[in-house]
Amino acid sequence: MPTAKFFALRGIKESLINGYAVLGVNEATSLRDELYQLAVSTSRQLESFVLDSLCWVVAVITKRAWIDSSEEQRMAFTRTLCEDITVHNTPCIGLITSTYIIDEIAGGSKCSEFNLPWEFHYMCKASFEKSHLMFLLEAALKVMHQQLQRSLVQQGVSPNGSHTIAYERRSALHVAERVLNWSFTSPDANKLADSSFGGSIGASAANGLDNSGHKRARAGDLDDTDDYEAPGLAILDSDLQSRTPIFPSEWQALLLDNSVLKLFFSIYEATVSDQMHVYFSPGSSHIALQCMIQISGLRGKAIFAETATKSTDSLRAEYANTIMQNQLRVLRHVCTMDFTSEASEDLVVATTQMIRRFIEAQLDEQPVTMVAGERLHPLALLAAGVPETFDYFGEVSKFICLLLRAASGILKSDDHHDIDEEFGDVDNYFVMQAFDELANAWTSVINEIREWGYLAEASLEGSSKAEIAASAGATTGDTVSQLDNHSVLKSFTQFLTSTAYMIRSEYIQLRMLVCEDSVKESSSRNDAQSIDHGLLAKDYIVYEDQLQFFALLARLDIRTSMDRLYESLCSRCSALQSEFSRLESAMSNGSYADVNDETTQRSIDILHEQIHWIVLLMSYTLADAGNSERVLIPASISEPSAASHDIEHDCVVQSIMHILKTLQFELMSPSSILAAYGSPLLAETLFWTLRRIVPVYFMVDVSDYRHMSPHIVSAFGRPTDGGNGLALIENILEFIRRAFDLWTAEEDVLQMCVDMLLAFAQRSSIARPITQSIKFASLMMYFTSNIARFPVSIHGSMVEALASLCSHSSSEDHERAFSELKSLILMNIAQVVQDPSFNQCRQDSQVISRLLDGLDMLDGIVASASFTNMHMLFDLLFEVQPFFEQMLSIYPRDQEVPCKIIQIVESAARFCDISSLPDNEHMARFSLNVRTILQKYQQSQDVIRSGQPDTDMDTLSRITTLTLAISHLVRNEMGFAPNELERSISHEVSDSFGETEVFGLYCIHTTTTDIQITAPNVMRVYMQLLSELVQFRLPSLIRWLPANTWQAVMSMLLAGIDNNIHDVEQRTYEAISKLGAYIKIVGVQGIFPEVQQIFQQGIQQFLSKLFSALLFSPFDSQLVEPAGTALVMLGLVDSEHMQNCFRNMLQDKSAAVAERLAAVFANFKHSLESCEAVQLFLRSSGPIPEPIDSAALRQPLFEFLVSARAVVRVK
């Protein structure tokens, strides 16, 4: 029975793994050889799954006996496999067995559980890759070559009905693909440590296909039909990236051989033509694509090491020449395919990935050749060594355009409805994913050239002409050509500029078609199904990468690109105005049928969508992101602007002016009947664009620029420079007012207006003139008088924006404006709370809404804290303190009001500088006020804590806010002091803040549960707070924190050890080290006995868990140093328990292993005893000692852990 044979083989495998010690190496290898011969002799009679299982058992035995076998025995079996592979019987047992052996020894997800230490797996892998892996690849390549030749000879001959299919289920391609994905071991100490501990956070397997840059998971991942898995994250893998592995120099002759490189491309072509699978198995084309991707990214100094006959750069040039020629062949074939068919998905996606892999690998490799006194640029090396370089990049640019054209073609065809149903929209279709891949590669090329240009310009400025002339003839290394960097990169820039026009044109056309399609689709769906994606998922966020790519292309030729965008914007705005004029005429004539025509509405919606996208493209092209004072106009824009004949022909100035005109037209009078046809999406986009552009172009300081365009200064500059910027800003303030009148119910539009004002407030050159303008005074009066008309959700940010702007005004105006905002806030807090009927109507929804609105505005004004308004903010906080206490007493069961008050405390602790308070009395008063609020909050929460604890998002957000409030308070009041005993303030004030912060920690634990605290987001901020308290306030913690809260704190620290959140772990180890240092040096004699016992138990629990985690668990290598420092610190505190942990580890170990571990541990203890940093720590004194310097512990710590894990960590 085949099934019985299958399970019998599984039993043999498990028995051999468990009983190998009894069987011995000779018996095991004899069994392996016997099973292998059985597989060879009976391969045609066995079912496929039985044969696979038989070969798998052979592979498992081979690995288990690998270390105990001699090198001659290992090599003999490898030669047996190679001979069987090259003879190529059908089915080829050598290929199947080799595939399983590579999987087993690689140590990945397909590796069997041997229950052997990491050292065993590492030694197997290091030995196998050094002397055997290449032989298997060579054998597989021979078979692939034979298959290719047979397929080419028989090409065009149709097989008859009796033709025997000769393909392999496990083909030679499987072996080649696994070898090209092999993660090599390294003698480097850091990489060895990464390998031992399982790598660092963010490491991912080096698969054949990249997974970055896509909005959805690909449906076309190139998994073959033989249930193949790429190597997963394993205990042996190191330096794992989505890149080709770095091969040792011994592989140079094989992998850089032109015939080998060409073979993979030829194999793929043969597999595609072999539709009947006569010579290649189903799925071979997928694996061949993966191999093509891998060999396109060969990198590293070793593989391109200089030989006796060829230099490094010559080897790289020859390799690049071969890859580019073969990729060109693939590219030209792909460009003839139908991209609208999913049948082309695999090849299209793989082609884009191999292009990106090749380009990025080439740009990462720095040539050694020196020309004209500077190192040859990688692109210059390509151009000099590869004649087809510009043909290659030309085909890539053509491919990019074809992808965009294909996406446009889909929208024009009848198939796009099916695509929308399956993928959501064309942007999620594989052609756009392929475009994203190539856009990333193209961006790398452009950025490389731009960076070289900046460096070359800086070098020219720093060198004299004589120095440049002296170095002009200097040439070292093997110059592949006489081309120099300047001429080659200039040619590249010209080439990229010419191709950028085509790519931009195709992208603009696609976006315009997408706009038409989205409007048609939304009109064909019911209102309930229609979603305004522009308001819910912002296009400037979703498509940020594509917009940045477009901007990068546009800045290569800013005049042409901006002229095209400007013309597009003008034409569509004119069309929109024509539609509105026709509507207005129809209304005047009473033709309401024309007014209500769906075609007219659809045309207006399409124009709005298209203008929205054109403005987005303009905004990304004209300005970079950022709100700081130093976001400048890009030189690639200011210089062409300055070269314009006059301001009327300056495309940059005219584009910004037309954006303002478009906004003015869109914000027509609310009384107009045409206002209903406006677009809130476009209005929001226009304000977002101004938020991005105005801080960069308006009121510029010409001293920030070497060459400033006079047209920009004239249009947008300061009045003192002859500019019209202030008048335009005043117009924008008027636009804001009109937007609030027109779009009162559109929260997104109004919020963007407020965000724009906040951006203006961050540029003093803009904020100061705004506050001096009469338009701002009018706008502020309008806001404060009509605030009830606007959505409550924007009140807080509106007050923040106004207060931030007012801080730039004169002292008198600032105080007056602050007083107005203060009155607005108190009207919703003080008046409500002081109302005689407040107690009777406190549960009324309108009353609660007013309170929450007032608190939200108070939070906003606190967030506007600056040096100029700090004293006024503290006075306001002191004034509302009684209202806080009253509300916390009245609303014990209402979660919103207490939470909002804690949010204000958090903002005050974050934004208000405590050191700005005039004296110790005010500081102590602020601390007492915060403590009183926490006490009231804690008492109100006690009423509602009965029952099952909530873990919903609102509850967790509330806990996070409370925790952040205490954390910000600690950092704010401590300032730059290393601990509480070295504060410059009085001892009484310091004690007051210490008591408040400790009570805050107590409040957290009495108002929450452990389950709530261990939620990931809460745990992050909680451990940050705990680490800060232990660092800055440890004496206060010991003095004031109750024993039961200490117990909860120790439980949280225990949960933080070996946590799956990186920053939680790091903070935990820092806190434990600090706590251990205090207990070791200061001692616990003066501490309450109950707390002493908690410390003792906690130290032992920390030691046990940390010892186990560091020696047995997969561990982030970046955290080994802080975790190991904590372990050493705990070991110094309780050396006896440390010894017990070690003895427990030896209980189930053999005598040999125990002896070896004992030697490792003894050596570690000796290293610590002789470590100067440890001795310096033990001699230290003082009330708050510092832990041991972790850098000094790195070498002995890593030696101990790597040596111990090599034995005790098993797989």
Give the arrangement of secondary structure elements:
Blueprint: H1 2-23, H2 25-41, H3 48-64, H4 71-87, H5 93-106, H6 118-131, H7 133-153, H8 172-180, H9 189-197, H10 252-255, H11 258-273, H12 284-295, H13 312-334, H14 345-364, E1 370-371, E2 374-375, H15 378-385, H16 389-412, H17 416-423, H18 430-462, H19 465-471, E3 475-476, H20 485-524, H21 533-536, H22 539-542, H23 544-554, H24 558-589, H25 592-595, H26 598-622, H27 635-642, H28 651-666, H29 680-697, H30 710-716, H31 725-742, H32 747-761, H33 764-772, H34 774-786, H35 795-806, H36 811-834, H37 838-841, H38 845-863, H39 870-890, H40 896-911, H41 920-944, H42 953-974, H43 987-1007, H44 1010-1013, H45 1016-1032, H46 1034-1040, H47 1043-1056, H48 1062-1081, H49 1089-1112, H50 1120-1133, H51 1135-1145, H52 1151-1169, H53 1172-1178, H54 1190-1208
Antiparallel strand pairs: 1-2, 1-3
